[in-house]
Automatic annotation (TrEMBL):
Belongs to the peptidase S41A family. GO terms for cellular component: outer membrane-bounded periplasmic space. Residues 412-456 are annotated as: Disordered. This is S41 family peptidase. It comes from Inhella crocodyli. PANTHER family: CARBOXY-TERMINAL PROCESSING PROTEASE CTPA, TAIL-SPECIFIC PROTEASE. Keywords: Hydrolase, Protease, Serine protease.
Amino acid sequence: MGAKLKVVGWVTVGAIAGALTSLQFSATARSTPSVGLPLEELQQLAQVYGLVRANYVDPVDDKKLISDAIAGMVSGLDPHSQYFDKKSFGEFREGTSGKFVGVGIEIGMEDGLVRIVSPIEGSPAHRAGLRSNDLITRIDDTNVRGLTMDQAVKRMRGQPNTKVVLNIWRKSENRNFPVTIVREEIRTQSVRAKLVEPGYGWIRVSQFQDRTVDDFARKVEELYKQDPKLKGLVLDLRNDPGGNLEGAIAISSAFLPAGVEVTSTKGQVEAAQFSYRAVPQHYLRPGQADVIKRLPAALKTVPLVVLVNEGSASASEIVAGALQDHKRATIMGGQTFGKGSVQTVRCLAGNVRLDECPGAAIKLTTARYYTPNDRSIQAQGILPDVPLDETAEGNVFAAFYTREADLERHLNNGDKAAEEEATKAREAERKRLEELRAKRNEPFKPLPDFGSPEDWPLQQALNQLQGKTVVIAKAAAERKAQANAKQP
């Protein structure tokens, strides 16, 4: 119980602001520690407050001024810290339940526009054909450029059975088009699974939410019921933006020996220093049943491949890093997003429990997390053991993903040279793909659905499990050939 008693508030490890974020657990909030106050700067703040009230062209609301000041203070720290007013905090908590009314997309920001990270499978947006990396330029009659993430989200959410018109810019096809979507309650299904070949299973976790661990356990049991002697398993974490930390610990624990470290956190205060291990007390909430212990024992030893890509972030990176460091799985795919920070949610309404918080709260970055081998993946990500291209012809969209290192004010990971080298490599790849696209007479074809027979990385993962030849990424193969050529 030590871990949960130490943590102040709710801890989140979601990928980017606006993506569906889940909460780890609730605890009693404590009072803010006393700190020395910079009196001169506070006097300046009070002076600006007075000048705005007295001289602004229109009367301003005092509460709005204070809220905006707090929001600016918090959002200026890093891309993941955020201030919530009463309404936005309610919307934030709504996202943790895995259901809300809207169009069904996970989003980020790119060049002032809303970028679709991934349409939620089975949602109205998914059925309408929206794709990862589509850009939303207008929502009904409102231009997106100039809106904050929260403002864009509010315009896309609404009442069930109401319509919203999204104007889409699809870079891969160089075209702009409107899509009318009818809002509905989105019940996200974060886990899918099937036998892709006799003896080989595929289980996809698209995000870590409150129900993810239960859904994961049920899907694993269904796979083993279909084939009790599975020869190999593919855990697909591509485009998984993260979410619930305890979910990441639980799913890692399903594959790892009991008691080993899954991840650790380090921050300024003592409460932020902790080692999370593959034990029930580090992933169970009070009163929650331990569904992990009922899973087949064979899950601890079945040959395992984990698929990741540039959209795999945070909680999914924790799982990939833990399985990689313990040599429990072969990590295949693309370099991951690189979101290695932990956020704690604190209520600003006094000493009350967060699940009873009436409004105003902040989500504050309080720690970095580390893999069992003490690797920080912040702004760098998990490097796969076997790099794969998106298609048999090579990468199509990988270099166009926004990653942690691309976000303004992102935390560094202490290795500036490595971060700069990775950024240069991605810029070179992006330039190459832009030149290739300019030479083509037709747009790039969209990538096939994950888990389909045309899913190239999945086919390479199956080849790995079956001892067949794996076609590694073209860029990696070229680097290896160049290195061999330089050897005497």
